[in-house]
Amino acid sequence: MEGAGFRKELVGKLLRLHFQDSGTRVSGDALQLMAELLKIFVTEAAVRGARQAQAEDVALVGVDQLEKVLPQLLLDF
């Protein structure tokens, strides 16, 4: 599935927020890999949320549907 993704700069900033050592560096390949992982995770969350909304006969996916699929999604990843 092609489409929008996460910019490597954004992924780098998100990762640095959680580093304990300010001197930790991340390679370009690692940033690209994390960006792809985030893209897959978000896409999967959207698909599962849409399926949950269909099961509930709801026209729009909302926070309620995402909250219902999140526990299993996190276990799968």
Automatic annotation (TrEMBL):
Chief site of localization: nucleus
Localization, UniProt: Nucleus
Annotated organism of origin: Galeopterus variegatus
A Pfam family hit: CENP-X
InterPro entries with a match to the protein in the record: CENP-X
Quaternary data: Heterodimer with CENPX, sometimes called MHF; this interaction stabilizes both partners. MHF heterodimers can assemble to form tetrameric structures. MHF also coassemble with CENPT-CENPW heterodimers at centromeres to form the tetrameric CENP-T-W-S-X complex. Forms a discrete complex with FANCM and CENPX, called FANCM-MHF; this interaction, probably mediated by direct binding between CENPS and FANCM, leads to synergistic activation of double-stranded DNA binding and strongly stimulates FANCM-mediated DNA remodeling.
Keywords, ordered alphabetically: DNA damage, DNA repair, DNA-binding, Nucleus
Superkingdom as given in the UniProt entry: Eukaryota
Protein family: Belongs to the CENP-X/MHF2 family.
This protein's name: Centromere protein X
